Amino acid sequence: MRSEAMSAAMALFAIGGCGGRTPGPDGQPLEKPVATAEMIDAGGAQIGVATFASADTGATLGLSVSGLPAGSHGLHVHEAGSCATPDFKSAGDHFNPGSKQHGLENPAGPHAGDLPNLRVEADGSADTSITLDPALLGTGPRSILGSQGTALVIHAAADDQRSDPSGESGDRIACGVIERT
Ligand SMILES: [Cu+2]
Ligand SMILES: [Zn+2]
Q1: Which residue, 31, 56, 77, 120, is most buried by CB atoms nearer than 10 A?
Q2: Structural domains of the chain ordered from first start
Q3: What DSSP string runs through 139-172?
């Protein structure tokens, strides 16, 4: 009984006390983030946070956002560390140090910054954890933490994961500059 109550209290603490960090599969918080991005909408309001973490088991992106249209949305790391409202064009193209084509399902791809579509629930929120190529958080040319800066961008439409250069994913509706913690 007592341990059950403790577990419940711990779980509540984990949800409420970690500032948007997504718990891992076993309920334990992920490793300390190496970078974060405060996600803003076209009006500049903060709608959530992204955390990039490295662990022995790999690299992970935790993303917690709200106030978005329900459905599937393209999600990418873009090549510039700038999120100028309202269109976020300042984030540039997809992060693509290997000069590949766009899309996780493109035989000539993908861009290093290509990510799976983000599924937003009916209430406009998403709280998810995505496995990343560990090289993205490393120190080599594929790192998104280089001096040039990068940004995480959410699009209006789903990414078809094939059409170069951006998967027909439409306007940019949210953006966050990725910053080392
Ligand atoms: Cu994008
Ligand atoms: Zn791409």
Answers
A1: 77
A2: 21-180 (2.60.40.200)
A3: SSTT-TTSTT-EEEEEESS---SSSTTTTT--SE
